[in-house]
Structure formats: C-alpha cells, structure tokens
Amino acid sequence: MMIDRLREYVGHETPTGDTEALNAFADRLAERYGELGGTTRRVPTRTGDHLVADFPGRGPRAGEAPLLFLGHHDTVWPVGQLQDAMRWREQDGVIHGPGVFDMKGGLVVLETALEQVADLDHRPVRVVVVADEEIGSPSARDLVTAESAGVFAAFGLEPPHPNGDLKTSRWGSTRVRIEVTGREAHAALDPSSGVSAIDELVDQLILVRAVVSRYDEVLCNVGTITGGGRTNVVPGFAAADIGFRFVDPETERAVLDAVTGLGPVRADAELQVRVMSNRPAWQPSPATDELLGKVITAGRSVGQEVDGAAASGAADTNLTGWLGVPTLDGLGPLGQGAHAVHEQVIAASLAERADLVAAIITSL
User: What is the pLDDT of residues 151-191, one digit of tens each?
Assistant: First the structure.
C-alpha cells in the first residue's frame, strides 16, 4: 500500500516553480489529508500553493500543544524526468525514481503514521507542506514561522543520515545573486567605450572568495553564471547565483554583510547584490537533545534504535530550530541519491519509519 501510494505521488512530477503541477499535486494531498481526518487550508503563492493541515488530538491529550511536521511537495526534477532518465523501478528491495527520497517518501511515511494513530490517544498534529523548499522556501518562511508558534516540537520529513540517524542541527544556507550592468560596445572598433559586465562579475567573484577565505567552515558555491551574447560585443549584463553555508549566525552575518556591501570595481559598472533566500543556522541545543532522548525511547517501543547527529544540508527545520522550537529532522525513509539520477529509497524502511513516526505522535 505504501509503495503504491509512493508510486502514485512520484507519478505527479512537481518541479519547483511549476505552479500548475504543484497545485495539482496539492489537490491530491489535501484530499488525502481530508480522508485521514485533517482540516486543510491552502496558502496561495505565485509559484504554487502551500498546505497547512491540522489533525485533532484524541483523548485526554487532545488539548495539548501540537506536534508540527514539515514537508515539501516540490522536487528538483523537471517534468519528463520520470519518462526519461529516472523511470520508476523496484529491484532487490530498492525503489528508484525522481522524488522518492527527497521527499515524497517522507510524505507517504507521515500519512501512514497518521492512519496508524487514528484510534489512539495523542496530541494534535499540524502538517505544513511547502511548494518551494528546494530553492530555500522564499515564499514559505513567514508561514513556517507562524505555524511553529506554540507547538510542542517540530519534525522534518527530509531524508535521514545514511545510517538512519536523525538530524539534530543544520548549517545555515543563503542564496545570493550578483547582477552587473555594464555598457555594450563593439569589442574591436570601440572597446574603450564599453564596460564589460562579465569582467566586472569575475572580479566580484574573486572578491567574494577573498571574503570567504577569512572564515573557517564557510562553504561557497557559484552555482550559475549568465551574461553576454557575442564575442564581438562588450557584454552589458552578467549575473551569478551563489550558495553559502554557515555553521553559526555570527559568521553568516559577517560574510553576508561583506558580500552585500561590495561595490563596483569599474567606475561605470553598476552592481546589485541581493539575498534571494535565507535559512539561518540551526545550532545544537539542550531542548533538541531532550527531544532526541524522547524519540530514542519512542523508537525502542517499536523495536528500533535511532540516534541523532548534526547535518550540513539545510531545510525548513533550520527555521524552527533557529526560533528555539525543539526540532529534529530526517524522519523520511532510508536511501540515497538526493538530487541525483540514482535517487532511491529502501522499500522496507518506509514501514519502519511510519512505525517510528506513529510512536512519536502517541508518546510525546
């Protein structure tokens, strides 16, 4: 049943930014949450609707603070990937396909856990599924902040560590765009009248590297570069998108202040530096350690040994952890290949993770 549902969900290809595809899948999720007894509301955005589903508690714990589960329904894969390079495949207990690991498997795990606890006493459960997580959740940050207010704890449905451990902290992640406007001119007949936006961008990227080199444990990846058009024209525009990762908020602030404060090297060049999305560093805390202890106990109640460790990747749990909400991530199924063509999950881990999530819901 879980595998059938995962196959159905993977069949809904949902690349970030494809509003029509994302909203069609959101329709299916909302229908499913209704079948499970939840009340769902849509939060429309230009790039796809977010979902918030509330499931009432049962028994004497019905009035307690809810547990918050965070997920997303966008993937990094374009429409057509399922029919091209990443066909659905089950082989030797492993399921392959776009989004099986990150993170439609996690969505199926949560649904199954909600089915399991339907007749048991438990706290209320709140589920937030966002449409743009893969680009930093720029439109969902305020929603996650609002829905995390007053919750008992937050849990992410992202993939776990390779050994199944949960994630107890995350590096901060920020996307920055540098845009340069120069002045076009004939590259041979009148080069001195031009201002090369590409040359200016190259110099700016060297300055960014110099900023980063002052700090330990900062990751910097220039992910895209665009600009120019013809070799006989001095380019009038160029841009680069950069991904930064930070261990702590102090370093994050220092690096971002320096990068956003850069000025043009060439007198006639125009420079714009914008923060496109930001997830603050979620650092280890006693509250998370205490929560992990409770989850370890819950896991043992269903015959599972789980633990936790820090993670370098970022997700929406960065925000809840940064806000001080006791937070754990990595409740999705075991597998590998997030954002890679060999993306896969271990089929047996789907049910195991559902049992763990159900135990968490009924024991915390």
Answer: 999 999 999 999 999 999 999 999 999 999 999 999 999 99
> At 259, is the secondary structure helix, strand, or coil?
helix
Rounded CA gap, 114 and 66, in Å? 14
* Spatial separation of the C-alpha atoms in residues 361 and 345, rounded to whole Å: 23
| 247-269 tens-digit pLDDT | 998 999 999 999 999 999 999 99
Please, what's the b/e burial string for 17-40 (b: 16 or more CB within 10 A of its CB; e: otherwise)? bbeebbbebbeebbebbeebebeb
Alpha-carbon torsion, ordered 308, 340, 49, 11, to 10 deg:
-110
Handedness of CA 202, 205, 211, 212 (dihedral sign): negative
Q: How many CB atoms lie within 10 A of CB 297?
A: 14
Per-residue pLDDT, 339: 94
Beta-carbon contacts of 196 under 8 Å, excluding residues fewer than 6 positions away, are: 182, 234, 235, 266
The Cα 35–Cα 105 span in angstroms is 19
Pairing label, strands 153-156, 67-72: parallel
Pairing of the two strands 270-279 and 172-181:
antiparallel
